Amino acid sequence: MHRIEKNILHHAKQNRELRKYLKYTSTENGCCFKDNQAFENKKGICYIPELSDTKYSYKDFIKIAKGDEDLAHTLFSMVDWQSPETLLEDFNN
Questions:
Q1: So what's the pLDDT on residue 5?
Q2: Could you list the residue range(s) of the whole structural domain that residue 75 is in?
Q3: Coil, helix or strand for 83?
Q4: Does residue 67 belong to any structural domain of this protein?
Q5: Nearest CA-CA partner of 79 in 28, 42, 38, 21
């Protein structure tokens, strides 16, 4: 098995393990982990997109929104499977 294949399998296993502990929910367009309380309390992981190992916190949403708290809240309320960066790109197009 090649190193890249081993790396992919390793990440897939980690993702399955993570999903055992985090509650992923179905959305209109896919599924994701979304924790409103973590976002509002500004502590911990509040969002993980579908098919991704990327974990987002409140601070990540603020950074993506370039410090604009209203935009960060809008992004968080609207993401439902995609990354917040992708959603922001959609807003700008």
A1: 47
A2: 24-92
A3: coil
A4: yes
A5: 28
65-90 pLDDT, tens per residue? 999 999 999 999 999 999 999 999 99
AA letter at 60: D
Q: What digits encode the pLDDT tens for the residues 42-53?
A: 999 999 998 888
Residue 49 lies in a domain: yes
Number of Cβ atoms within 10 Å of the Cβ of 7: 10
Report how many domains make up the chain: 1
Nearest Cα to 56, choosing from 87, 90, 91, 28?
Answer: 87
| CA neighbor of 45 nearest in space, from 55, 31, 54 | 55
- pLDDT, one tens digit per residue, over 1-25 is 455 444 444 454 455 555 545 667 7
What are the two backbone dihedrals, phi and then psi, of residue 24, each rounded to the nearest 5 degrees?
-85, 140
CA dist 12 and 5 (Å) reads 11
